[in-house]
Design goal:
Length: 68
């Protein structure tokens, strides 16, 4: 994106076809604001973690391992 090297130079350096680099560059230019911009809150929130259920599962698996 800085323009330090040409697309042909990047292609030779990394062994990637010129058209692939061009496609990646277009994708970045179109979506960079969504990736690097301020958060808009559109990202899906992580589901809440049920710690009690996880502890119960750990205990269950521990008992199974001790049995074998």
């Amino acid at each position: 994106m800085k323009g330090d090297r040409t697309i042909a130079q990047l292609s030779d350096q990394f062994g990637v076809h010129v058209s692939q680099i061009t496609a990646w560059k277009e994708q970045l230019q179109e979506g960079a604001a969504n990736v690097f911009g301020p958060g808009t809150g559109t990202a899906a929130a992580a589901p809440p973690i049920d710690v009690k259920a996880l502890h119960a599962k750990i205990g269950e698996l521990t008992l199974e391992n001790d049995f074998f």
